[in-house]
Amino acid sequence: MTPLGRTELKATSQRSVILDIVRAGKGHLDADEIYQRARERLPRLSLSTVYRALAKFKETGLIEERHLDENHHHYEISHHDEHHHLICTGCGKVVEFKLPITEIIIEKVPQAAGFKINHSGELSLSGMCPDCQKKAT
Amino acid sequence: MTPLGRTELKATSQRSVILDIVRAGKGHLDADEIYQRARERLPRLSLSTVYRALAKFKETGLIEERHLDENHHHYEISHHDEHHHLICTGCGKVVEFKLPITEIIIEKVPQAAGFKINHSGELSLSGMCPDCQKKAT
DNA sequence: GTTGATGCAAATCCTTTGCAGGGCA
DNA sequence: TGCCCTGCAAAGGATTTGCATCAAC
């Protein structure tokens, strides 16, 4: 079986399909969406396998868990640059952008002095995109 | 019964106790913690009342819901200035700080142009505080 | 052959809802 | 009085876990 990145995880077909889907999903899929898509290729797949695979991937740093909204998680392949999300409350569109928030904070926030902020610092803002603002009028 | 801020909500003893606790909790209590504390004063209180009161308070803008961690919500009295949280992964300490992230983004992120970012934009970072870094060595 | 991964079902956690009774305006 | 609020119990969605089986190393 093709190895999964450079991890020590046992490579199974389930895992490679799941990882594939997360990769193709451009980062904004939740567990259930991943499950639905994976099932088209592996009809006997179970949801718990999806959760367990995602947990392992997260543990080894292959993917990251995001909290775009309040009720469940979304997953994306780990990037190495710091990026964040802006979600339109109108149409649900997700805009990804880069900004070194961590640096900005270290620089401007005295209370953060000495804190070792980890890479997974995440910023999710919501707002209304130009299109939806027009529609709303 | 003492009115609850300047809202039109019906004032009940449950609600005033709950609001009191949220206020005293300095913003980092979840529903169950609020429930436990409120029960000391109102032994017959039910958890659903807590959830319903929090929902109402949120709706009227009296409090805000935060997503400091992955599994449940935290509540705090609405502030009028934009502030964010830095959570220590070692001891769980929460440091609040002020920073006009929204402005910074509008200014530096081209993709955000035209977006109307709403006030509730929130940033939660995690990291390790100086004390915990020492202990970890 | 071992060890870790899977599928299934049941369990758990957090939150919401239905309903009948009760309290504030 | 009328309407909103409450408590209780049951329902709901997301995620986790126990267990026997199975596949990767």
TrEMBL record, chains A, B:
<keyword id="KW-0408">Iron</keyword>
<comment type="similarity">
    <text>Belongs to the Fur family.</text>
</comment>
<dbReference type="InterPro" id="IPR002481">
    <property type="entry name" value="FUR"/>
</dbReference>
<dbReference type="InterPro" id="IPR043135">
    <property type="entry name" value="Fur_C"/>
</dbReference>
<keyword id="KW-0862">Zinc</keyword>
<keyword id="KW-0805">Transcription regulation</keyword>
<dbReference type="InterPro" id="IPR036388">
    <property type="entry name" value="WH-like_DNA-bd_sf"/>
</dbReference>
<dbReference type="Pfam" id="PF01475">
    <property type="entry name" value="FUR"/>
</dbReference>
<keyword id="KW-0804">Transcription</keyword>
<dbReference type="GO" id="GO:0003700">
    <property type="term" value="F:DNA-binding transcription factor activity"/>
</dbReference>
<feature type="binding site">
    <location>
        <position position="91"/>
    </location>
    <ligand>
        <name>Zn(2+)</name>
    </ligand>
</feature>
<feature type="binding site">
    <location>
        <position position="132"/>
    </location>
    <ligand>
        <name>Zn(2+)</name>
    </ligand>
</feature>
<dbReference type="GO" id="GO:0008270">
    <property type="term" value="F:zinc ion binding"/>
</dbReference>
<protein>
    <submittedName>
        <fullName>Transcriptional repressor</fullName>
    </submittedName>
</protein>
<keyword id="KW-0678">Repressor</keyword>
<feature type="binding site">
    <location>
        <position position="88"/>
    </location>
    <ligand>
        <name>Zn(2+)</name>
    </ligand>
</feature>
<feature type="binding site">
    <location>
        <position position="129"/>
    </location>
    <ligand>
        <name>Zn(2+)</name>
    </ligand>
</feature>
<dbReference type="GO" id="GO:0045892">
    <property type="term" value="P:negative regulation of DNA-templated transcription"/>
</dbReference>
<keyword id="KW-0479">Metal-binding</keyword>
<keyword id="KW-0238">DNA-binding</keyword>
<dbReference type="InterPro" id="IPR036390">
    <property type="entry name" value="WH_DNA-bd_sf"/>
</dbReference>
<dbReference type="GO" id="GO:1900376">
    <property type="term" value="P:regulation of secondary metabolite biosynthetic process"/>
</dbReference>
<dbReference type="GO" id="GO:0000976">
    <property type="term" value="F:transcription cis-regulatory region binding"/>
</dbReference>
<feature type="binding site">
    <location>
        <position position="103"/>
    </location>
    <ligand>
        <name>Fe cation</name>
    </ligand>
</feature>
